[in-house]
Amino acid sequence: MALLEVENLQTHFATLDGVVRAVEGLSFKIDAGETVAIVGESGCGKSVTSMSILRLIQEPPGKIAGKINFRGRNLLDLPDVEMRKIRGKDISMIFQEPMTSLNPVLTVGRQIGETVRLHEGLTAQEAEKRGIEMLGLVGIPAPERRVKEYPHQLSGGMRQRVMIAMALACNPKLLIADEPTTALDVTIQAQILDLMRDLKTRVGAAIMLITHDLGVVAEMAERVVVMYAGRKVEEATAVQIFGNPQHPYTRGLLGAVPKLGSSLQGHGRTKLTEIQGQVPSLRQRIVGCAFASRCPIVTDVCRQVAPAVEAKTPGHYVACHYAERAVAA
Amino acid sequence: MNPKAPMNASRPLLEVNGLKKHFPLKSGLFGGKKGYVYAVDGVTFAIDKGETLSLVGESGCGKSTVGKAILRLIEPTAGEVFLAGERIDNIPISQLRPMRRRIQVVFQDPFSSLNPRQRVRDIIAEPIVNFGLAANGSELDDRVAELMDKVQLPRDAMKRFPHEFSGGQRQRVGIARALAPGSDIIICDEAVSALDVSVKAQIVNLLSDLQDELGLSLLFISHDLAIVEHLTHRVAVMYLGKIVELADRRTLFATPHHPYTKALLSAVPVPDPTAKRQRIILHGDVPSPINPPSGCRFHTRCPFVFDRCRSEEPQLRRVAGGQMSACHLDEVPDVAVIPKAA
Amino acid sequence: MTSSTLMASGLSVGDVAAAPALPDVLAPRKQRSRIGMFMYRHPTIFVGGLLVALIVAIALLAPLLFTTDPTALAPARRTRAPSAQYWFGTDMLGRDVYSRVLYGSRISLIVGFSVALLASVVGLTIGLLAGFIRILDTVVMRVMDGLQSIPGILLAIALMALTRASVENVIVAIAVTQVPPVSRLVRSVVLSLREQPYVEAAVAAGTRTPIIILKHILPNTLAPVTVQATFICASAMITEATLSFIGAGTPPIIPSWGNIMAEGRALWQVKPYIVFFPAIFLSITVLAVNLLGDGLRDALDPRLAKRI
């Protein structure tokens, strides 16, 4: 059985301007110990998906429907008390902005300790010991000294390490990392990605990586789910997604990303692929394919019938009537 | 377009010489000075007509401060800036206006760089009005319409307010405003960093096209090396207020010299899961620009550091690959063995 | 159906696998009229605005609302309880409290609005200049600090003591106490706006400083100042009533809510309605203006304005 199985997830928000369908019929699985990346541009629903899994969506104005099966239990059916036991213990989360995600008036040791004391009932001394252990694990030098420091005394990279230490303190089965390196500089990002790869082999948690950065996806993920307008448009292994993308949106996205080393091959400047137009409004029900308004190979069928997510080859799911054609085009 | 910039017999369009900006740190009741933030500490480069020079580096390296000091949005502490041979860093603000017509700027955040209470037409028209470049209202309208065509904005956008547009379209408005006075050089301060991937590609392509069409010079300030490689002619890498390496595009990306450049290049994630790369992980964080390290500023994180680096500051000099690099390596025969990166 | 294009594409609707239909998780938004939509979005502005409009109407139309001369003395019918003839009763000089309260609203509104306008205009000017001229900033802001260190009501009493009692002097005295917070607010907004990229872009585009202040800074300070002005309006009404109540405000000959309450104070235990009716009117008016201010603040706050 998969560790996490999301089925037909719908997360909608009631706003003054109407209902926003942020996530619309999303299904995917994460196996134990696996790294799955959820990729898409801003507003595609990837962060809302992670918040929905942890049930951190405020209801109202939000509303979650569908199934989120975690180790065989549907999280959407659990009472709040049970859900609180899962959050931070079985499923933990790393956020994008390490400064605002840490409490500025508590020492980092206290903040790591809080989680383990809550979930594992450790004493204050034991919790501090665990804090030092965790800080050492995430590669913070002199952890005995650092546990007594406050977030503002740490650099951005160090804070993100503390966030990771907090997330891993209770040995979670699933770690949700929402843009974990977006706010960091590239050399610090390299450190954190390195750390996450290293920890993954040592801790064995599954990682759900949410990002817009295809470079980070290629470095970290085993499987990739590409989202557009709240829907899954393609899912495959990382090698398949980057080597043999099927959906026109995935292809457009990959073409739009400049690759380091491009100047070494060609002469002069090359044009990047553009995806014309803009993301459709999520306030109306979209009839037909959500990508139809920007798709280079759109036909009338696409405008009338929303494509089902189908396995084009084993393990490679695409939501496009013209998947094969897209490859040929 | 040829990546090599057209060589000009006369002086370059923009010359920056030993530019410094030290921000005083105030403290205490009476605002006594506690020290300085050495944001930019002696930066020298030049940009030719029609050329793109990129300033790259991580946050806090001073790249944006360089742009603002050239624009005199902040007053430089020391150094010289020449535009077409005329010194512009020390003339009074009142005499600066003719220069302002020639240097324009596009900022990072497409949401805060446009006045929310101005219509698109008025935003684009503002520099034209300021410099008296239109004789009457209809000429002004024609000029604005022409600029909107150039940046591929629909004409009906004229009467609308910035909040009615997406990030990419707003950035087009910003570019149109920068082009409006017929500028020679545009400083793009992280101009595409806040945009989504697909929109970023649109704006990068637009900037390249405009440069080819109008012969613009660009000072492209960015932290995104992959984007920089796509549209630049030359690159200057900054670290803690100084340029550590300055090279043409091909040389920098093929044979980087400075250890920081190498680490920076190797740290960029590549969208190809099959790529096998030797990664240089730099340890530690960027030191504070309030107390920059002695000697070479990179010595606290450099994998090749030796004694001389701690005491003596390396000067930017021409090295074997043809680029300028500020590193003691290669100068001392017994440490000349550099592990190949990338 | 355009079958020809479907043929050309090689696929028809029947050939493709359609995604399963999804239910509505939330009920679709109700269709509302424009007024309904405004009420739904900004209930406090609606309620506050409606009440303020009502009180303004009462003040303007006071002569038509079955009032008598509010200053007409009739010792014969002193301190009558509220009745069909004297809706709010009469005071110890036999004046009709209903008429006095209705005419009194004019004083409160005039003072409230005038103080709000005066303090905003002066504060805006000082704040804009202080935000742009460094020397002025240090000097003027220290003066403002000094003014703010004196409790507003004491400062107003002191100022009133220097002049003779009149509505104009009350307005000036209260406005003086409200200028420092407005200029402080404007100055802080100006300082943050100056750092905005669009202001820097305007500087880089060769826009002269006066134009920058007028076109780029001023319009963006108006929203917070408007909000502040409504709160000043409410607090000025209370201050005016207080000043009148202690005899340092509008001349006793003019019926203002503070004056009516001051005169009714002696009879408070036996004839509470003389104080009660002006007090209720004052409370409702202040509440209405504050509601309006709260609503405006929410509506004009750019952080709240960007809804999903």
UniProtKB/TrEMBL annotation, chain A:
PROSITE patterns: ABC_TRANSPORTER_1 (PS00211), ABC_TRANSPORTER_2 (PS50893). Pfam families: ABC_tran, oligo_HPY. It is found in: Cell inner membrane. Keywords: ATP-binding, Cell membrane, Membrane, Nucleotide-binding, Transport. SUPFAM superfamilies: P-loop containing nucleoside triphosphate hydrolases. GO terms for biological process: peptide transport; transmembrane transport. Coiled coil: none annotated. One of its GO terms (cellular component) is plasma membrane. Residues 4-254 form the ABC transporter domain. CDD domains: ABC_NikE_OppD_transporters. It is a peripheral membrane protein. It comes from the Bacteria. NCBIfam families: oligo_HPY. This is ABC transporter ATP-binding protein.
UniProtKB/TrEMBL annotation, chain C:
It is a multi-pass membrane protein. InterPro entries: BP-dependent_transpt_permease, MetI-like, MetI-like_sf. Keywords: Cell membrane, Membrane, Transmembrane, Transmembrane helix, Transport. Residues 109-293 form the ABC transmembrane type-1 domain. The chain crosses the membrane at residues 44-66, 107-132, 273-293. It is found in: Cell membrane. GO terms for biological process: transmembrane transport. GO terms for cellular component: plasma membrane. It comes from the Bacteria. Its main location: membrane. It holds the Pfam family BPD_transp_1. Belongs to the binding-protein-dependent transport system permease family. This is ABC transporter permease. It comes from Limobrevibacterium gyesilva.
